[in-house]
Amino acid sequence: MAVLSVSRRTVARSVRALGVVSASAALAIGVAGNAAACNISEFTAEAKCDGEKGIITVTDKDPAGVPATITVFLQDKQVGQQVVKGTREGTTITFEEDWKPNAEYRIHVEAKPYVNEDIKGNLKTPDTGCKKDEEQPPSEEPEPTPSQSSTTPAEEPEQPAPSASESESTAPATETSNNAPSPAGESNLAETGADSNTGLIAGVAAALVVVGGGAVFFGMRRRGANSQS
């Protein structure tokens, strides 16, 4: 009887020890499973281009394959929501979002009961967009304003080219009219210094000389007669 009681006690102790070990193993497996499923670092997001359209991709590398709800926000405005079931290699979902350059998106992950938080750091889009006009903005050349276009025609009449040519063509014509040859008689008189009245003046002068001489002679004769008497 003593031997039987001892064996029962040994079995009971062994069973208890086995239960403790099993519980510890289960707890360790549960903790390990929870740690693998709730690691937010398994989720990554990226902004890409699909042709000329923008897209946002989220990849879930969860070996446990716990379904997770992914929600994308732009300035607290929800732009899309999808459910992803991760794998060890990674499962990627795509959000069609025509994002703008240098925009920031918040990616929230909810995998109950393990994860309920945002991906660390907001998603910032590239500096250039997907469209060609956004990648290579056109060179900014100032177009002529209405004031400039209106002043341009007004400046054209101010150019002195037509009036200068007319004045230059008129000046020689004036000089030519002033230098026109005069009649033959006028040019001869101008060269000799005489005119058509020169002979008449000479005759009158001679007559005056004769009259003056006669008056002098008559006066002297009269004076002599008066002296003799």
UniProtKB/TrEMBL annotation:
<keyword id="KW-0472">Membrane</keyword>
<feature type="transmembrane region" description="Helical">
    <location>
        <begin position="200"/>
        <end position="220"/>
    </location>
</feature>
<feature type="compositionally biased region" description="Low complexity">
    <location>
        <begin position="161"/>
        <end position="177"/>
    </location>
</feature>
<feature type="signal peptide">
    <location>
        <begin position="1"/>
        <end position="37"/>
    </location>
</feature>
<keyword id="KW-0732">Signal</keyword>
<protein>
    <submittedName>
        <fullName>LAETG motif-containing sortase-dependent surface protein</fullName>
    </submittedName>
</protein>
<keyword id="KW-0812">Transmembrane</keyword>
<keyword id="KW-1133">Transmembrane helix</keyword>
<feature type="region of interest" description="Disordered">
    <location>
        <begin position="118"/>
        <end position="194"/>
    </location>
</feature>
